[in-house]
UniProtKB/TrEMBL annotation:
Residues 99-108, 136-149 have a biased composition (Polar residues). The lineage of its organism: Eukaryota, Fungi, Dikarya, Ascomycota, Pezizomycotina. GO terms for molecular function: protoheme IX farnesyltransferase activity. The chain crosses the membrane at residues 170-187, 207-227, 248-270, 276-294, 301-320, 340-364, 388-407, 442-460. It is an enzyme of class 2 (transferase). This is Protoheme IX farnesyltransferase, mitochondrial. It comes from Mollisia scopiformis (Conifer needle endophyte fungus). Its EC number is 2.5.1.-. Pfam families: UbiA (PF01040). Converts protoheme IX and farnesyl diphosphate to heme O.
Amino acid sequence: MIIRYPTAGAFRPNHLSTVCLPCLLQISRPASRSLRRNFSRKSNVQAAAVTGTAPRLRAEYFSPNSLLEKARLTTKRGNLTSTIQHGSSIAAENEATKLPSSSRATTPPRTPAQDLPHRRRQAARKASAGADLVLPQNSSSTLTETASQAPSNSIRRLIPVLLSLSKPRLSILVVLTACASYSLYPVPELLLPSATDTPSLSPLTLLFLTTGTTLCAASANAFNMLYEPKWDALMSRTRNRPLVRGLISTRGAALFAILAGMGGVTALYYGVNPTVSFLGALNIALYAGVYTPLKRVSVINTWVGAIVGGIPPLMGWTAAAGQSATHGDWKELLLGEQNIGGWLLATLLFAWQFPHFMSLSWSIREEYKNAGYKMLCWVNPARNGRVALRYSVLFFPICIGLCYYGVTEWSFAVASAPVNVWLVREAVRFWKLEGHRGSARGLFWASVWHLPVVMILAMVEKKGMWQRVWRAVMGEPELDEEDWLEEDEEDAVLSAKEE
C-alpha cells in the first residue's frame, strides 16, 4: 500500500513523491522508544543524585538527523507532513549559511513576545531608567570624536583637542555671566568715554575681560582633566575625553593649562585691573586645587564648585567699577557700598548651580558612585532634593535685592517672578519624588532656561536705561557729566537733611 501526499518538498532532492506504508509505520513506531529513553534518562539523573556521580549520556540520545527526529515525535499524518516541510526549510537554511552541524538551528528564533516574564520586566526597568536621563550631548566628546578622525600631529587634530580640554560649553557660560554683569553696572552705555559726555564703559576693557576670562576658564578645566583621567574612564559622560583616549599627552595638556592660565591672568591684570586678575587666578586655584580633589572626599565639593561659578559675575562687575573708581584698590572695588550689586549677581550664580547640578547629577548617580565621587545624588538623595529646593527659593529675594540696590528697575521683580515660580515648582516636584518619574528632567531643563531668561530680563530692565531711550526718542536734552555730578550732590544733600 502506498500513500501519496500532495506536498513532498522534503523528498524532492531525491525525486520521490510517495511514501510506502511500512516506511511510515517504521518511522512512527519508535515513539514509545523515546518515552523509554526519557525514562531511562530520568533514572540516570536520579541514580546520579543518589550516588553523587554525573549521569553518563550515550551518543544515541542525540540524533544527527533533525528531520527524522521530528517525524518520530508525532504519529498524525498531517503533523508529519508539516514537520517534514518545516525540517526541510531549516535544512535548506543551514546548507545555505554553511553552518557547522553543531550550531545548526532546529527551532525558529525566539520572538520578543516569547521572552520570559523576568526578561520583560528587566527590559521595562531599563526603558524607564533611560527615560530619566537628562544629560545633553557632551561637546567635549563631540570634539574628541572629530579630533580622532584627523591625522595625528596635525593642526586639524590639535585644535579640537585643545577646545575639548577647555570644556567649551562651560567656558562660554562663564564668559557670558561675566559680560552680563559687566553690562549691568549702573552707567548708561557701553561706549568709549570720548564718544559721549555721560559716564560709560569701555568696549576695550570688555574685550580684555572676555579674553582673560576665557583663558582662565580653559586653564581651570584643563587642570581638572589632568587630575582625574583614570576616573573619567569609568563614566560614560567623560570616558571620551582626550586624555582618556590618549589623543594628547599629559605633558602637552599640562603645558596648555599653564600657558592658558598665565595668559588669562596677564590679560586681566594689564587690560582690566589687578583685582579682576586676582579673582581670575583665585578661580583657577579653587577649581583645580580645591574642588577637583575634594570631589572624592566630601559632598562639600558642590558648595566649593558653586563658589567658583559665582566669581565670574563678580569679575565682570569689578571690571566695570574699576573704570570710575577713585583709588582702584580691592577694598573700593569689592567692599564698597556701590558694589553690592556685584555680590548679588555672584549670589545669583552661586544659587543657580544647586538646582542645575543636583538634577543633572541624579541621572548618573550610579556612575558617580562607582567612580568614587562623593555627591549628594547617591550619598543622601533626600538631602539632594532639599538643597535644590532651598536654593531655588533664594531667587526671589535676590531679584528683589537687585531692584532695591538700583541695579534694575522694580519691574524686574515682577517680570522675573514667573520663571522663578516655574523653577521652584519643578524643585518641589524633584524634592518630593527624589528625582523619579521625570522630576529630575523637569528641574534640569527649568534650570537651563532659567538663567538666560533672568539675565536677559535684568539687562532689559537695567536701571535708567528706558528713561534714556525715552529722552532720545522724544528729543529731550541729555544730561552731561556736570549735570550728573550736580544731581549726585543734590541727592547727597537731600539725604543728609532727611537724616
